Amino acid sequence: MAWEEWEQLKAAAAERHAAAAASGMRLNQVAPEPGGGGAGGLGPGDGFRVKHQSLDGSSHLLIELAGLLYEGRPDGDLCTTARAPRSHPDVAEKVDRFARFADDQYQDLTSLLAALSTRLRDTKSNYVSYDGEVAGGMMNALLETGVYVPPEKR
What we know:
There is one protein chain. The relative contact order is 0.08. The protein is mainly α and 154 residues long. Helix content is 66%, strand content 0%. The protein is built from 4 helices and no strands.
């Protein structure tokens, strides 16, 4: 790719980005609440929402993915058929090295998926407990500061 072509592609991407920003297009966000949110800080009105059911479902999907990887792992018999004297010693060495590498990668990936799943479940429980604290605080505030007005006096 020539330098001029690269510059043209960058300019075209910048124009598309400016047009998208001007049209108010947002990706992976909801519209910010009016009057809420500070300058880029986290808090009310930052435009992001979390559903704890989604976090729980994602953690289950990660465990299912690890199970699928277990089912699709390299077959041990396949590697033993490539050993010497059935195949050339160099081929046997390369197949053995690849099998060990693939097993190592599989172990790392399944450990990572399990760790991510655990973190998502912890995050979900934190959101649920925080939502419960907020709801409890709102109910307490309503009970403490609320005044009962009978229907005939409204």
